[in-house]
Task: structure prediction
Amino acid sequence: MNYTLHQLQVFLKITQTQSITKASIELHLTQPAVSIQLKNFQDQFDIPLTEIHGRKLYVTDFGKEIAIAAERILNEVYAINYKTLAYKGQLSGRLKISVVSTGKYIIPYFLSDFVKLHPGIELVLDVTNKSRVLENLEKNEVDFSLVSILPKHLPIDNEELLENKLFFVGNTDAATNRTIKKVADLVNVPLIFREEGSGTRSIMEHFLEQHQLTSTKKMELTSNEAVKQAVIAGLGCSIMPLIGLRQELTNNELHILSLKGLPITSMWNLIWLKNKRFSPVAEAYLSYIRLQKQQIVSDKFSWYDKY
Result:
């Protein structure tokens, strides 16, 4: 056998995602490149590692055993690299953070300088929906998570980073905006929701319930960017976090609707499991955040105060 570490990485990611498409996205490779690596790896075994039924990929029992071995091998390789850097006196290791999708507009600014200070750190950043973020945290698969709604069912500690403001927004069509003067007028326009499990969706549904509004015209989309583009195109209105709207508001592509009870505010929080045993990297990152967060907010989010 003559498999490579790259083939092990690709195969492990395929088993984790159960999809060549998803694996290619997470590995930043093309689908054909992932398929070729999978084929070259499978050709070295007499027993199938994966099977295709319909259009779905399944990992065989043998493939699952190989995936466990691949993960063990890759972890040993990472350990060798980290020990080499540690011997040189550099902070090294993995920092794993799970972030709700809207948090992608925030977390890079709270990571950039820390990663530059410690080039031996490997950053693993998973941007997904709220349900997946909390699942990752509960399984202790990450060091930290970034959320705007603190989970009530998990024992956690937290560090507040930045205020979260949510507004009702529409596009800049004057006729539409003239018809929405109060919250009750929202029954006359299509509303665009995030998918089930999204924190933003929960906030929007709670707002409508508080005002005893039921939308008969609604659309559901699976990402903040998709919602934003739908609103710009005039397909409807939505409650959206301000943090992701800077460019569109500046370019006059979106319009904030002045309605009673808005904005809705919460806090972006970095959270971790209570009593978690931090790695040296995670401990260093938390110390960095506590020391630098106010400066980061001042330097990178001063525009926020205009709204």
Observations:
- Residues 91-162+267-306 form a domain with the D-Maltodextrin-Binding Protein; domain 2 fold (CATH 3.40.190.10).
- The chain has a mean pLDDT of 88.
- The two ends are 61 Å apart (CA to CA).
